[in-house]
Amino acid sequence: MSEIKLFKGDALEILKHLEAKSVNLIFADPPYSLSGENYLTCKSGKIAKCDKGSWDQIENIYEFNEKWIKECIRVLKDNGTIWISGTLHNHPSIGVVLKKLNLWIINDIIWFKPNAPPLIQKNRFVPSTELIWVSGKSKQYYFNYEMAVRLNNGKQMRNLWEIPAERHKTPHPTEKPEKLLERIILIGSKEGDVILDPFMGSGTTGVVAKRLNRDFIGIEIDDKYFEIAQKRIEKASTERNLIEFLEKSTRGATLHLEFYPKKEKESY
After folding, report:
1. Which one, of 204, 197, 126, 205, lies nearest residue 168 by Cα?
2. HSE of 110 in the Cβ direction (CA atoms, 13 Å)?
3. pLDDT digits (tens, 9 = 90+) for 74-88
4. Is residue 154 situated within a structural domain?
5. Is 57 domain-assigned?
6. pLDDT value at position 46?
């Protein structure tokens, strides 16, 4: 049974109290600092001021990113990986920080959303992608290549992931599809591993981690979203037959029992 630990508060402070080298995989979807008077968005087909919440108002995004990533690296195991989602508004600074901290950048994943909503403005291209940096402390990191192949119907998985955007299950403005997290957690961790999400939001990472029989640590600063995440994760159920679940998820890909040997063999 998965062990779930949820913390309400500032990730920068709570991360300092977590044990060093205790986490196998980190998924982070940090604030992009897009909220404020000078930022606009689209609501109900009309231009509106972008206001995701006070958590999305960061005075110095470069300094903020360096601080939380440093703490995440401290709690990450030597063979663990950190996956950081974002857009062009925040991702350049993430890349600079990863290089500055001498992390091994494994991939930059492009998540393509074929059903991205159209733009009202006619002065730019329709944003249809998000980026995910994948990094480790060194070249010795856990990566389940066989799982990636099986999830991709027997072919090598490329760094362009076509996963449709989904209608949000909660009011959180940056909620990620569960299918995206399923792929990340299945490839980057094993059953029983510890998954950390320092910006938990509405709890998608925790729901998927519990479903896939992983332990989970979630941190969220917003009271409303913390309560939503807590209830959502509590209701989530663990898949008792992971192979059967994977067969449904891979749309006809062939999965065999021998893929899960009795004696666990790590893949680096």
Report:
1. 204
2. 9
3. 999 999 999 999 988
4. yes
5. yes
6. 55
Which domain covers residue 235, as residue numbers? Answer: 4-34+52-253
Contact 189, 214 (CB under 8 A): yes
Question: What is the C-alpha separation between 179 and 170, in angstroms, rounded?
Answer: 16
Answer whether 26's CB lies under 8 Å from 98's CB.
Answer: no
CA atoms of 246 and 182, how far apart (whole Å): 10
Direct distance between the N- and C-terminal alpha carbons of the chain, in angstroms, rounded to an integer: 26
Query: Which residues pair with residue 110 across a beta bridge?
Result: 131, 160
Residue 122 counted as domain residue: yes
- Number of folded domains in the chain? 1
pTM reported for the whole predicted model: 0.84
The CA radius of gyration of the chain, in Å to the nearest whole number, is: 18
Structure tokens at 225: 């979203």
Beta strands in the chain, from DSSP E residues, in sequence order? 4-8, 23-28, 40-43, 46-49, 76-86, 104-112, 129-136, 160-162, 194-197, 215-220
Identity at 125, one-letter amino acid code: F
